[in-house]
Design goal:
Blueprint: E1 8-13, H1 16-26, E2 31-35, E3 38-43, E4 46-52, E5 67-70, E6 73-76, E7 80-84, H2 86-98, E8 103-110, E9 118-124, E10 130-135
Parallel strand pairs: 1-4, 7-10
Antiparallel strand pairs: 2-3, 3-4, 5-6, 8-9, 9-10
Keywords: Dioxygenase, Oxidoreductase
Organism: Parvibaculum lavamentivorans (strain DS-1 / DSM 13023 / NCIMB 13966)
Domain VOC: 5-136
Amino acid sequence: MSRMPRFHLAFAVDDLSAAREFYGSLLGCPEGRSAASWIDFDLYGHQIVAHLGPARERGDAAGDEIRNAVDGDDVPVPHFGLILAWEDWHALAARLKAAGTSFVIEPHIRFAGEPGEQATMFFRDPSGNALEFKAFQDESRIFAREF
């Protein structure tokens, strides 16, 4: 029996200790292999790798300068994240709020009452990388084309 493929994403961070705290402690991603310049994390079964890179100014590759309007939100591009189960999304949103996370886009419901209705939130890691976590009550609507 085949399984859903797992993605691998490598991205730059300017502080491995801060990445370890954010991804490992705050988001709860178990740590895998690591070296002096990178750390593997298990993001819900997917492999993400924080690679130490040169410090950059906000507005650089972290996505501050590129934004797209989506259902009234000013979405940062690029970004990455996951589609979680509905209950897991709400638990993560509560944990992030309790930790005092500064949201780029506060947790809310997008496309309310439409086929693509989803819970969404955006925030940044300590290096400025934008993350989006979302959830659908009806996961069959993840790739719905009609809005």
